[in-house]
Amino acid sequence: MQPAQAPGPGVRRELDQESRDWLSDLRAEGMVYDAAVERLYELLLRAAGFEANRRAAGIASLDRSEIDQIVSDSAGDALVSVLARLDDFRGLSKFTTWAYKFAILETAVKLRKRAWRDREIPRAPEGWELVQDLRHAPDHDAEQGELLTAVRDAIATVLTPRQREILVAVAVNGVPIDVLAERLGSTRGALYKTLHDARRKLRATLVDAGFDGGELGDTS
Amino acid sequence: MTDELVRRLLGPQRRPLSCEQCFAELDRYVEWKLSETDEPFETCAFCESDDCVQASECLSMGAHLESCPACDEEYASLRDLVLSERSA
User: d(Cα A151, Cα A149) in Å, to the nearest integer?
Assistant: First the structure.
């Protein structure tokens, strides 16, 4: 994932000493730099291991050596990212928190891909069936049934096939967005944009049809 | 289950950050969420901030995390990692 350009608030007024030391050492040369890179790799390895331990139990047929390899690869990839983006660090958190997120991202993406490696991505019709089945489920009243019908009809009529495929895969079938992006030859950011556009279209259609916009899954 | 499905299909009402913007703000957001002091709320670099200041919450970040399970997982992981280091 490419970092977004952040035009906004400036660097924290006073960086903590530990973060200053990290930046100073990683901008140094020779032995100071080498030692800092080594420490940074250890830090990222710890973060990658933390993330792997959270997730690995949920992935069938993943053995210890494969987990170790993913952790090692993730720490290495995160190290490259952190060093390449050192100037992007704005000092709005501790340096270690900023660095950790690269290791967590790398590890999470690799493990999600590994979890779906041998799985087919459910295609849109399977999601359709679920939406249709839910219309007859006993746990909703007539009003909810009406809303579900309207949502289903809007998905069928106002979304493009691509929007429909992505929405159903992610929102109904629970396919991780980065896994889907890889299968479709796209990026996580591009798919999320498609998802967002699809949802906006659905909301607008439902409001036009007389549903209260404030009641439609209001989460804010 | 019906409500949950509708929520997942329609997503948040508020305009969310993108995945890239979420990642750019993730470390700041995690530390702010974990802060226990009365530090003033710092707005993110991307969304209009008046509502966020009033709510004392990064609303577009919240909207993104609610509608992007992958980013939400990574947020939870970073938060828990930072927490575990603090308690170590």
Answer: 5
Residue A158 CB neighbours (<10 A): 16
B42/A199 Cβ within 8 A: no
Question: 3-state SS string over chain B?
Answer: CHHHHHHHHHCCCCCCCCHHHHHHHHHHHHHHHHCCCCCCCCCCCCCCCHHHHHHCCCHHHHHHHHHCHHHHHHHHHHHHHHHHHHHC
ipTM associated with this complex: 0.92
Interface test with A, best of B3, B4, B5 (most A CBs within 10 A): B5
- Spans of chain A, pLDDT less than 50: 5-11, 218-220
Please give the pLDDT value at position A131. 63
Whether residues A92 and B78 touch (CB distance < 8 A) is answered with no
Q: Where are the alpha helices (DSSP H) in A3-141?
A: 17-26, 30-55, 64-84, 95-115, 124-134
Whether B48 contacts chain A with CB within 8 A: no
User: A 93-122 residues with CB below 8 A of B?
Assistant: 93-94, 96-98, 100-101, 104-105, 108, 112
